[in-house]
Amino acid sequence: MKDPKNKFSINLPLKGIVQAVTDLPDPVFAEKMMGDGVSIDPTDNVLYAPFAGKITQIHNSHHAVTLQQGDVELLMHIGLDTVALKGRGFELHVAEGDQVEQGQPLITFDADLIARECVSVQSAIVITSGQEITTLAPLGTVQTDLNQVVFTVPSSNDPQGTAAPVQETATEPTGPAITGSIKIPNATGLHARPAARLAVEVRKADAKVTFTVNGKTCSGSSVTGIMSLKTKLGDELEIEAVGPDAQQVVADVIAAVKAGLGEEITSFSEAPQEDVIEEAPLLQVKSGEDGVLIGFTASPGRAIGKLVKHNKTLPEVTRESIGPAEERAAFKASVKSSIADLQSIIDRLNNNSQEELAEVFNAHIELLSDPELSEKPLADIAKGQGAAWSWKLAYEAQAETLAKMDDPLLAGRAVDVRDIGLRVLKKLLGVDDGGEILEEGTILLQEDVTPSEIVALDLTKIVGLCTTHGGSSSHAAIIARSNDLPYLVNVEDAMKDLEDGTVLLLDAKRGKIKVSPTDAEQAAFTRKIENAAKQAEEYQRDAHKPAITKDGFRVEIAANIGSVEDAEKAVAAGAEAVGLLRSEFLYMERLNEPTEEEQAEKVGAILEVMGKERPVIIRTLDVGGDKPLPYMPMPHEENPFLGVRGVRIGIERPSILRRQVRAILSQAHKGHARIMYPMISALDELRAVNALVREEQKSLGVEHVEVGIMIEVPSAALMADKLAQEVDFFSIGTNDLTQYVMAIDRGHPGLASRADALHPAVLRMIELTVRAAEDAGKWVGVCGGLASQIEAVPILIGLGIKELSVSVPALPEVKHTVRTVSMEESRKLAQAALDCADTSDVKDLLKSQQ
Fold this sequence. Notes:
The termini are far apart. This protein is α/β, with parallel strands linked by helices. It is built from 26 helices and 35 strands. A hairpin with a 4-residue loop joins strand 25 and strand 26 (512-515). An eight-stranded antiparallel beta sheet has the order 9-5-6-7-11-3-2-13.
């Protein structure tokens, strides 16, 4: 171990007048509670890194940043009382965890705003790792050279920049853990000033003190550690102390926090926490029919069963322990039982040939078997904490850490950690998921359901699913459809008042639930289910016949696919084309980009399956901030659905698009390939990618390959007349188009049901697109979820849609539906739908036609 005998240089981080830290009009800095350092009265508005190191902390208000190298830690605090600006006037150029070089810009700030609204623009540059400084820059002088050494500190860091080795730790205090808690009364949480005062209070005691807030922990004697908790008004500060002064320091900390740590406090009695009264929304959908509840179709189908309600609300988790040995045994038993449950799910999925879904739960077992995840809760249990409390803190902290990582694969694991964390926590709390009490013929009611939960359902017992929240185009809905599980979302709240065991007739195709049916109603519903099964067989027998309306108009019925296996199933189900090949399947779940050769092999195989007589529309890569790739890091976006996604990826990273286009063009001779760009919003985007495709066609000597675009943003529909001049076809993605037209996230738990593609506003966008395409002599298809909704088929073909691209299971019935209507009737129906005022009017119109 090295002695701290080297001199570590702190260069100028901010151009301005260098002054003694004791000159700052703030006692926390002036009295060096935070540490030794200098103050700078800035003449510039950029904060720079004074040495190479790691950004370990950035305050939520962006006014303070901590930089560390080895045993040197430096806090740079811009202005005084700038926390009150809550981020206004500060622009970050780095993120927590970044490695930076000396002289690299860290923060740009608005000095005029700080001068107007805060105590002072004078900034503190303070060593928080405990060393005393030796000042080299003359105090009271203006310094502008970023290579000027302002001061040095003794350090074990190598003068050449090598960080100090890890120091040996002193013997830790022993004894029982004394705990306490208090709500933080500071309006802006524990920022620099109150954090420093709190650390001073802790350092007086002969005890090891740990603070915990919202699952994050830190040493009570570390100012930057306290700041890293990123607390806010009303957060619960959990205190744990071990050592001779443990009892006293817990009491002193509670008293100090209660007094405000030198700041004005917000009395919680001034703003009492009132119980939130549940109110009925102004917009509610009710059936108006006695004994009937309604919901929104997420997965069609019919089922008869008995209601079982699952309540996800967990009891309060407390830190009380019945004893370390007992809590440890309970924890280990809960983990073991959870692994056994997961293995049962895996076995069932493998038996059902769902190996890909089984891999999700194999990953969960790996996580639960990882000793690192259990290490922290077992240590806390040994200190006298309850198992449930210790486990909850550990897995939530781990999930939060993973979620913040730059690596998308690791960030994605946060969801898995929360999943397994909740599974074990329920075991520890004695909360029963109800799996063992389910009988055959169960219709399950939950608030919402995650994809992993729906995969874990035992479909030998569960015949239907209802949720009071959720969206019809969610991932859970997609999984339900692939398993032929009838599923309604956003069912009426009245369903929660029904007794478990109530007999239900679930008609997820029509969005209805009949409660406590009579024997006659139940018998009639059974006949409907039997007839539907017979009809499905009839539809399949005619699946390879063309879809021609009663008055002789042919509509091409295509499939949405994502793999060679899907292509084979589509051909068997009567697909006349592929209206959407999701090329993302080649790119996802990989650590590196697929080579051009790998892409060509997969695309070529699909083209060969479909044959030259069945066109295949290949959508170029459609990923983005909402579904990033591990080998293509992207900056965090506040709203990824309005960020770099779809074709914008290809525009920003043309090499990726170029390789994909070359792979497609090289295989075009094996079938009838078409290329489609997602998320086109403007003509210049289309022209840019079209130029790239033409360039590669010329390079490879490939004849013209048809190109088209997805119409899924309003600007594309409104400018369809201009865009149509540059493409061979349009394909409307109704899922995203609805989301953007209605300004509703299709995955929003409370609003998703209102994002309905049958809304007249969406239908008018479709009509506008078709009219523009027809004027240019081009055709339009629909590849979104609306094409698979049987009741919507007449409206779509009446609007002039020439191709319906649907999920593979829906192919036979959609073709049958086209054969049962005439184009004349469909056009009248479409016009009537366009004249409707709302979604409910459109649905009433469709019901009147049945």
